[in-house]
Design goal:
Layout lengths: L19 H11 L3 E6 L2 E7 H5 L3 E2 L5 E2 L10 E2 L10 H11 L3 E5 L5 E6 H12 L13 H6 L2
Antiparallel strand pairs: 1-2, 2-5, 3-4, 6-7
Length: 150
């Protein structure tokens, strides 16, 4: 299965000069965790909710206040990407190995075509697997025994 069946096709992109607080408002309003940062359609980086949160302050009421800086200074430069020909399994493997929650899909000229998120991959499982039982074997170990063993 190729990436086209898994990627988010309606991707909101932002320019690097957009203020970080404005990007945070977009993320909250649209309920998304990643914003590809582009210039003339070419991917420059990606902004995650974590990128925003580590640069923000928390008010007494719990509200997050992002600073008034260009998001280009907060984004992840040269993010890991994939092509339209990538398979879902190869992208999932890469996301697991690199602990990524989103991978931009780009053309040969680095133009953004889509975005594959962990939510997209989980949605594929729901659609394909339905009500099948969990194919995992769990082994539960008592962690307190490890500290008393020699």
């Amino acid at each position: 299965m190729h990436v086209e069946s898994a990627m988010t096709r309606e991707v909101i992109v932002v320019p690097p000069e957009l203020p970080l607080h404005a990007a945070w408002r977009i993320m909250q309003r649209r309920r998304i965790r990643h914003l590809p940062v582009v210039s003339a359609g070419v991917l420059l980086g990606i902004l995650s909710d974590r990128d925003v949160l580590i640069r923000s302050t928390l008010a007494d009421d719990g509200a997050v206040t992002a600073p008034d800086v260009p998001l280009g200074s907060a984004m992840t430069l040269s993010p890991v990407t994939c092509s339209i020909d990538s398979t879902v399994s190869s992208i999932a493997q890469m996301m697991i190995e690199r602990r990524l929650d989103a991978v931009p899909v780009v053309s040969d000229t680095d133009r953004i075509l889509g975005l594959v998120t962990s939510t997209d991959l989980l949605s594929l499982l729901i659609e394909r697997e339905g009500a099948r039982p969990l194919p995992l074997h769990f082994e539960i170990r008592d962690g307190s025994d490890a500290s008393t063993s020699s």
